[in-house]
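COMPLEX REQUEST
Ligand: farnesyl diphosphate
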Amino acid sequence: MGSSGVAPPTVGPHLACIMDGNGRWAKRRGLPRTAGHTAGEEALAMTVRNAAQRGVGWLTVFGFSTENWVRPASEVRHILDLHRKLFGRIKDLNDNNVRVNWIGRPFDEPGSRTPNAIQKAIAQAIDDTKHNTGMMLTVAFDYGSRAEITRAARRAAEHNEPISVATLAAELYDSRLPPVDLLVRTSGESRISNFLLWQSTSARVYFTDCSWPDFDAQQLDQALALLRRSPA
Ligand code: FPP
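STATUS: Structure written out below.
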């Protein structure tokens, strides 16, 4: 039983996505970067449906990193608005039996920059989908893996716990997250960029040249096919 008091799904792989390339997708079309993010949010909504329908148990996406705050204010505002849009897609999420979850720097800790409106949207979406029993959609917002692991070590020390894999795992932002089975990064970048470092120790990794706004059902199926390969 997790911190929300709701049992997590026990079946289905854990897919994690670094949704890269929105800006370049827009640039190629002569559009502002914000148009790329808008298209990226649509692609994410579609991927949530497609993943749920394919039996993915956990989908964790890098929505906003601890490093993203330095982008121009208008772009940050736009990306934040898109999070509200995503968290507002309650009918779609419920129709697909998807539960919403969040990981990131806790709002009540020093350094938290998450505006109230986003905090509320996250809390509302979690509440509005908590009775669903299917895929868990975890949005990483104001998230960085090093910060997560450093905080876990600090908390273990504060609680006078021995430093071990088990005690650190229990202090992560959400200890219910199972190991990542498949990590996808779009747009031709072959980097992990401080995302789910602890959880991805055994993950298969799928890098594709496809930009995130073009990531469709066919792309998802190609990525998921990696999971069917037997170990080398
Ligand atoms: C990378 O594109 C993507 C991000 C900075 C994260 C934002 C993701 C979205 C807006 C998609 C919707 C997601 C949510 C959770 C609402 P980039 O700007 O780094 O692209 P570039 O590398 O081509 O410039």
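REMARKS: The mean pLDDT is 95. The longest helix spans residues 33-53.
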